[in-house]
Amino acid sequence: MLLNCYQEIHVEAGCDEAGRGCLAGPVFAAAVILPKDFYLEGLNDSKQLNHIQREKLRPIIEREALSWAVASVDHEEIDRINILNASFLAMHRAIEKLVIQPGYLVIDGNRFKAYAKIPHTCIVKGDGKFLNIAAASILAKTHRDQFMETIGVEYPQYNWQKNKGYPTVAHRTAVIEMGLSPFHRKTFNVSDPQLTISFE
């Protein structure tokens, strides 16, 4: 069972990102502050849920969170500063947009650049351990999926409606055969489509 928060002294925001491993599109991040007594049936790491489950949970999180925000860093900025720094920047932008200023941050993963001297803790697989990080993972994922589906209408050959920019065999094959779209990350290598790659 997921815990509500990591600590109870300060107002805490959970943070997570989506899209780090993609070949195209922005990286999105979300920051979420939940009520201390918050509980939502089925809330879990977004990667453990299907599209329908995530879309069902999203409006409940957005309605019941004390504060939430989503931000992104586009493909051009990713190419300039690299995907790790872009992920940190997307989280910083999401935290900055929160209506309530958190006194503590919990970050999914093992690395983070401190933001505005707010203390933080990095938690490996935190989206499967704490509700606020799980909520952030769902918002980041669903907002990014929506973005990719929208731009995918103009570039149907890459099938972003289905793969959301992740390096599936079909996506890599399309890039090799037709080249990059304006939304592809130029610093990301497209490997042999026959190689198996896991993606979110």
Give structural notes.
The protein has 200 residues and is α/β, with parallel strands linked by helices. It has a single domain (12-151), classed as Ribonuclease H-like superfamily/Ribonuclease H (Nucleotidyltransferase, domain 5, 2-Layer Sandwich), CATH 3.30.420. The chain is built from six helices and five strands; from the N terminus they run ββαβααββααα. Strands 3-2-1-4-5 form a five-stranded mixed sheet. A hairpin with an 8-residue loop joins β1 (12-18) and β2. The longest helix is centred in the C-terminal third of the chain and has 22 residues, at 131-152. The protein is globular. Its cofactor is Mg(2+); Mn(2+). Belongs to the RNase HII family. Keywords: Cytoplasm, Endonuclease, Hydrolase, Manganese, Metal-binding, Nuclease. Its EC number is 3.1.26.4.
